[in-house]
Design brief:
By secondary structure, the chain is an alpha/beta fold. The protein contains 15 helices and 22 strands. 53% of the residues are buried. The protein binds ligand TXE. Ligand TXE is lined by residues 146-150, 173, 175-176, 205-207, 210-211, 214, 225-227, 230, 233-234, 248-250, 282, 332, 383, 385.
Amino acid sequence: MNIKNYINGEFVNPIKNQWIDNYNPSIGEVYGKIPNSSEEDVEKAYQAAKNAFPSWSKTTLNERSAILSKISFLIKDKLEFLAKAESKDNGKPLTLAKAVDIPRASSNFQFFANAITQFASEAHESVGLNAVNLTLRHPIGVVGCISPWNLPLYLFTWKIAPAIAAGNCVVAKPSEVTPMTAFLLGEICNEAGLPKGVLNIVHGLGSTTGQAIVSHPNIKAISFTGGTSTGARIARIAAPMFKKLSLELGGKNPNIIFADCDYDKMLETTVKSSFANQGQICLCGSRIFVEESIFDRFKVDFIKKVSNLKVGIPVDPETNVGALVSKSHLEKVNSYIAIAEAEGGEILFGGHEVNVEGGENGYYLQPTIIEVKSNKCKLNQEEIFGPVVTIMSFKNEEEALTLANDVPYGLSATLWTNDLNRTMTMTQEIQAGIVWVNTWLMRDLRTPFGGIKSSGVGREGGFEALRFFSEPKNICIEYK
Ligand code: TXE
């Protein structure tokens, strides 16, 4: 099936007629083509967005909210269909796409449908000076949204919903590796009555289509989620044009386990935080640090639990670990397993590709646990972004903190303890944008989402996202 660009409410071929293969990673086969859009396609999308802006930016909040709610409803209504498409395109278990990806895409629209009706401007009265200041928040104009392949519709809509809720028009590009659900979203937007040109979706490679969006002089803000080196490249292009940038990049998140934790809950959750979505979530706890006194017990129990995970084809309801997203990504993850041995790491479980029945040419890898001796090793310093975790023991809080913070990244962290004082001191010292205590991936969409250090700049979620997608203007009025 050939995917098309969605520009001005219509589905169109790329102007230069250049196409890229789209793979089904669970069987390792091409099942369609997607446009490799050029600068001309991006320009066409920009023009459609620009023309739609004057009218869209003046729609009442109630009208905008109603359209976003309708999109949310339609996504929920087509859950089964969208989940199948997502799972086929990405390799993730169908059960996961049904339980997480598609419901969250729907929630993203519903959340911002509600949030925009509660988003208030500020007023500051300059007491004694007979003046009042109003801060108005106007939409920026045409904005760019670029998203990755790991949670395709989930992260695509996480950017688009606040952008259009705030009154902007959008030129968006999903990952070329997982374009399908973004393509299907176009039809849903038409059905929901989103005016033509408010959302335009151009497909293609990062180095061509993505680059054209980032370099476009009149696309004034870019919201990007993806790899850290891509983020740095985008920042280099966007900075001299003074674009607003939100960059959600990689993570190398610590999962810190103290002996006083609720052990069973920790174990159950740690299996998920290590291997959910084949470990391809920027929030996965890929570095596990365990207090010395329970280290041996943890190793035995963790290996046992992980060995029960079923690696299988995504449509099988029993599958826990599906296919990795692409052959090149599988090769990247494999290369780290090879490095582990060279660095003196000990593979406690996994480490091999799996030949899965019904998916013989698919990209399957065992969930892999590697014991490392030092946090300085490559496995602990670089983002692998696959079903590979490392484990190490620590002696005390101080050592745990040092290990947790000694990485270039600072996205999220998980802490397992029942000690209140330790919770309070450690959560304040851990260098991360998000710290979970005795849980993982619990998300309240009102909270700020994002990282520090090489994990990016800016925050998404809640009013932070609406602030990003709007430009504040101060109006100072003096009166007699
Ligand atoms: O991401 P890219 P890739 C990490 C993970 C992974 C690595 C590389 O470690 O192994 O990044 O993955 C678009 N201008 N994460 O190569 O390239 C691209 O088309 C504009 C973490 O797939 O960063 C896609 O739409 N756009 C991450 C998006 O950027 C460009 C999730 C992300 O792709 C571009 C994914 C350019 N020059 C990978 N180059 C997370 N934080 O969740 C690429 N793109």
